[in-house]
Amino acid sequence: MEVKIALVYAMTCIACVQSFGTNEALNYLSQFNYFESNDLSTGHLRSQDSLNDAIRLFQRMNGLNETGILTAEVQDLMQMPRCGLPDNTGTQAINRARRYALSDVKWFKTDLTWRLENTTPDLRRSSVREIIARALKHWSDASQLTFREVQSGDADLLMKFTSRDHGDGNPFDGSGKVLAHAFFPTSERRYSIAGDAHFDEAETYTDNSYAGTNLFQVAVHEFGHSLGLGHSNNPDAIMAAIYRGYVPNAELREDDIAGIQALYGANSGVPEVEGTEGPKARGSCVANFVAAAQTHTAGSYIFNDTHAFLVDLFGLVSEPKPISNIFRGLPTNLDAAFYYEKTGKTYFFKGSNYWRFADLQMDRGYPRSIRVGWGGGIPDDLDSVFVWSGNGMTYFVKGSNYWRYNFLSSSVDPGYPKSLSVWNGIGTKLDAAFQFENKLTYFFTDGEYRRFDDNNFQVAADYPRRSTRWLKCEEEMAMVVSPDPTPDDGMMTMVTDDGSRGSKDALSVLALHACLIFSVMQLHNI
Ligand SMILES: [Ca+2]
Ligand SMILES: [Ca+2]
Ligand SMILES: [Ca+2]
Ligand SMILES: [Zn+2]
Ligand SMILES: [Zn+2]
Question: What pLDDT, in 10s, does the model give residues 64-84?
Answer without folding.
Answer: 999 999 999 999 999 999 999
